[in-house]
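Re: [ENG-882] Designed sequences occasionally contain unexpected residues at chain ends

Forwarding the minimal case from QA. Structure tokens:
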């Protein structure tokens, strides 16, 4: 038993070290917008596959091999209730799968909303998502990417961020003097938080907009209310027995897509719960296969 414990500790340490060795590209080399001086107690220390504190947002690239690259890129938003980032389960493992499928992937290590480090915490995560889209498009030639094939995927609260990116792109919350399109070309929402209404995930809502938000702010970030005909094609995947984020979140967003005539698909697992990452162990069906087929059907 002692040997087994030491082996597990060694593997965990190796995984953490490998993650730290991955190249990270600062999103804001000239300074992070909407920021306050970082307190000395606010220390970034990723451990056990999670990032709990982020003051310097980065993109972590997993480029597709040139022999199989499709020119498509995807930005990955890990979940964690806007209180942490599940970097292994909903970041690196997802990125590796996409890159092996010919899609260059970029894990977005975004700032978690905090009054300690942000002037306005409600826009902080969206700033980082828009900056990631802007950076990938601006550096598309260098990265071997088609700037018209840049999408976003998000898990849980990261799904809320991704759904915000695909519905709020007309309002830039970053400096965009070059007028780079901030609209993702497609979205994939995995067991996403969507609404800040009655069926919300309360922890995500409180973290982003506070415990006593105005109704205007609640409506603004209830993204089922922000879908328009300009919303990009979107794939939604969720499990019916999700006890963390109510299934209605997926249903409401898909219903809004249908009304707006937005192309898309929704797949609901019978079982799988929440936070299953790349593999739903309660099903023989692989959502990643659905995603690959859906991307191909839409020319990505």
């Amino acid at each position: 038993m002692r040997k087994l414990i030491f082996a597990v500790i060694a593997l965990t340490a190796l995984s953490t070290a490998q993650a730290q060795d991955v190249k990270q590209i600062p999103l804001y080399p000239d300074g992070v917008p909407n920021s306050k001086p970082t307190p000395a107690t606010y220390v970034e220390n990723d451990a056990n596959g999670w990032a709990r504190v982020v003051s310097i947002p980065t993109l972590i690239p997993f480029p597709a091999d040139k022999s199989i690259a499709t020119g498509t890129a995807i930005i990955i938003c890990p979940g964690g209730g806007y209180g942490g980032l599940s970097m292994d389960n909903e970041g690196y493992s997802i990125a590796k799968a996409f890159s092996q499928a010919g899609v260059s992937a970029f894990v977005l290590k975004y700032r978690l909303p905090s009054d300690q480090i942000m002037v306005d915490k409600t826009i902080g995560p969206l700033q980082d998502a828009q900056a990631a889209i802007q950076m990938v498009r601006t550096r598309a030639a260098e990265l071997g990417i088609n700037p018209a094939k840049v999408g976003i995927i998000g898990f849980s609260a990261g799904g809320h961020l991704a759904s915000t990116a695909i519905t709020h792109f007309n309002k830039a919350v970053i400096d965009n003097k070059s007028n780079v399109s901030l609209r993702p070309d497609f979205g994939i929402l995995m067991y996403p938080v969507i609404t800040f209404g009655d069926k919300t995930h309360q922890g995500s809502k409180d973290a982003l907009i506070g415990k006593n938000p105005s109704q205007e702010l609640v409506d603004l970030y209830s993204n089922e209310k922000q879908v328009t005909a300009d919303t990009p094609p979107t794939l939604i995947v969720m499990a019916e027995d999700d006890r963390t984020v109510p299934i209605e979140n997926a249903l409401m967003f898909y219903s809004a897509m249908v009304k707006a005539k937005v192309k898309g698909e929704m797949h609901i697992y019978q079982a799988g719960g929440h936070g299953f990452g790349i593999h739903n162990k309660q099903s023989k069906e692989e959502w990643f296969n659905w995603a690959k087929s859906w991307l191909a059907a839409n020319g990505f």
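QA comment: On inspection the terminal residues look reasonable. The first helix runs from residue 2 to 21. Proposing we downgrade this to a documentation issue.
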